[in-house]
Write a structure and sequence with these properties.
The protein is α/β, with parallel strands linked by helices. The protein contains four helices and five strands. The protein has a five-stranded parallel beta sheet, with helices on both faces. Strand 3, helix 3 and strand 4 form a beta-alpha-beta unit.
Length: about 120
């Protein structure tokens, strides 16, 4: 990790907005490649991207396929933090989620924000 820097990206857009859904992953993988720790949090419809099979159908012009970016991000040690109330509101079961997704409370997001050198919301 370069200089102990951590950046948190919050993804609030799902498959209905492929570009805004893809940007946090593109930036997070770029941060990882730069030696930074990158964490992506998901709220609102952004959480739908973590359902099995959804990312397979999300493509934004000019970007790699979302599924490819997710795989690259996770392989680089990236964490996927999903808002617990958002899961409940969308009736997403644990069995529906990609492996490694952490369903978390607001307190976890606040902790991550406090540790981050930067926060970006999409």
């Amino acid at each position: 990790m370069a200089d102990g820097k951590k950046i948190v990206f919050m993804c609030t857009h799902g498959p209905e907005d492929p570009e805004r859904a893809t940007i946090p992953f593109a930036l997070a993988t770029a941060a990882q490649a730069s030696g930074m720790e990158a964490v992506i949090g998901f709220q609102a419809n952004g959480g739908l991207l973590l359902k099995k099979g959804i990312a397979d159908h999300v493509f934004a012009p000019g970007f790699p396929p979302l599924k490819q970016l997710i795989d690259l991000y996770v392989q680089g040690g990236g964490r996927l933090l999903l808002c617990a109330p958002c899961v409940k509101a969308r009736q997403i079961g644990a069995e529906d989620l990609l492996p490694g997704v952490e369903v978390v409370s607001g307190a976890t997001f606040v902790k991550e924000f406090g540790e981050a050198s930067s926060i970006a919301v999409y």
